[in-house]
Amino acid sequence: MANMNLYSRGDKTFVIINMVLIGIFTLSTLYPFIYITAISLSSGFAATAGTVVLTPVETTVEAYRYILGDSKFWISYGNTFIYTIGGTLVSLAFLIPGAYALSRPQLFGRRFWNLMVAFTMWFNAGLIPFFLNMRDLGLLDSYFGIIIGFAVNGFNLILLRNFFEGVPDSFEEAARMDGANDFQVLWKVYVPLAKPAIATVALFCMVARWNGFFWAMVLLQDENKIPLQVYLRHTIATLSDDPEFTATQLNASYSFETVSAAIIVCSIIPVLIIYPFIQKYFEKGILLGGVKE
Amino acid sequence: MAQTQSGTAPAKSQFAQRSRATKIKDHLRNEWRLYAMLLPTIVWLIVFLYKPMYGLQIAFKDYSIFRGIANSPWIGLEHFENLLGFDWSALGTDDPFWTGGNEQFLRALRNTIYISLYSLLIGFPVPILLALMFNEVLNQSFKRTAQTIVYLPHFISSVIIAGIVITTFSPSVGIVNTVLGWFGADPIYFLTRPEWFRPIFIGTTIWQEAGFQSIVYLAAIAGVSPTLYESAVVDGASRWQMMWKITLPSILPTIIIMLIIRIGNMLEVSFEMIIVLYQPATYETADVVNTFIYRQGLQSGQYDFAAAAGLFNAVVAFVLVMSANAISKRFSRTSLW
Question: Given B120, B146, B279, B324, which residue has the most CB atoms within 10 angstroms?
Answer without folding.
Answer: B146
